Amino acid sequence: MPQLEIEKRYLLTSDNIEKILRNDFIEFKKEELEQFYLVATIEKTLRYRKEGSRYIKNSKKGSGLVREESEDEVTEIEYKEAKSRRKGGIIKKCRYSFSINNWNFELDIFKGKLKGLRILEVEFNDIEEANSFKMPEILRALIIKEITNESIYSNGALSKSMQIPLRADAKLSYKQIADSESKKLPQFDIYISKYENAKFALQYTLKRLLLSLDLQINDFLENESITHLLLAYKALERYRTLLKAFKKYIKKRYYLEQLYSVNSLLLSLEKTVEIEKSFLKLLKCKKRYPLKEQNRVLKTLIELAQLRNEEKEKLLESNLLEKVTYLQKMKLKTKKSLEKPFDYIAYRVKKCQKRAIKRAIDKGVDTQLLYSKLKEYKLLLQFTSNEKLQNIGYKRLKKSALNKKYKRIVEKINKSVAKDFLFYCTPKIRTNKIYKLISKEL
Predict the structure, then answer these.
(1) What whole-number distance in Å separates Cα of residue 437 and Cα of residue 434?
(2) What pTM was estimated for this model as a whole?
(3) Confidence grade of residue 395 (pLDDT, cut at 50, 70, 90)
(4) Burial level of 375, CB count in 10 A (0-12/13-18/19+)?
(5) What domains are defined for the chain?
(6) DSSP label at 364?
(7) Which residue in 41, 35, 38 sits closest to 67, CA to CA?
(8) What angle do CA 209, 214, 219 make, to 5 degrees?
(9) For residue range 117-150, what is the model confidence (pLDDT) as tens digits?
């Protein structure tokens, strides 16, 4: 006999739901499902589903919040016979069933071609109950948006397309930046929604960095200002960070070509940039030196300035603009696996980077290499997270990485060396460290 189904549906982020539920001591049931459709329209669906050893035939009429539903159990033979007549693909997903505040939830994590899609459903006894519903706090942060009335996210529509409905906000954002003054700064300021197509998000962010690089190099060649060179170097560093982080999603040939060109440009700029950084650091510390050492500091600054000017002249005479133009013309082809929600891809990439940092510590890498990996992770967070989350995530990872490194040093060398390591890793001490190092050189 047909019954009324009253439910709300929500699109979810790619966070680890099992970990979240376990941390809050919420019991859940995990189940593998397989389903397909014989009829899949906006107003009517006829679905067959396999739940463990059970086979269920389900029909629904209507759309939106309230629908008429009837369900019957069928045999395996009937199920297989219907499967041969299906219209569209076979949907496979993992379902988590749990209760919070007396509300019953079902979270579907899709597999195969729909991997990366997560939909949360909550059922109600009547419309009043549905209208009074408030999402529990534990789940509120995971919600992207409500999709109850969006038919493109219905299982029937998904079985027809076998594609996740994705947004393409990065295209519009890139066009706005290309016409504004903000393009001069090497930032990750492309607007990317959580359900953005990750392919567009990456492509247009890389294009935006190349836009900044081209402008800064042209300004450097025109005005001969090192400031433009520092900004160009920053844009290249960010470009390389994204290339390396998304390596597995870029076709090998195109990845290697791009990485070689970016590294070549970075090497061209590196010496001038490092001299300029040393000059600025020494200039900042200058007042802290006693009067009797001021002359030696001044002499060092003059030498650094001369060396910087020599390197700058070499760059002005080199084919710098040709290299930038060549990099801009290069194609970057991505794999099909990148055409997933940006939130899902970003989650996987960050997880991969964290593992790389932990492996580096286990292998006993030197402090400089550890810091370069942490810096890459920080840049990646700027691209994938909002400012608040990015700072929290980076600080936590950095603290755990340094503590782990400290323990390794204690095990291999001794405690005093480990203390020195942590001492020099504290941000407030860095200026003092620079001061001491320069004093020795003088």
Answers:
(1) 5
(2) 0.79
(3) low
(4) middle
(5) 3-161 (2.40.320.10), 170-441 (1.40.20.10)
(6) T
(7) 41
(8) 125
(9) 999 999 888 888 888 899 998 898 889 889 998 8
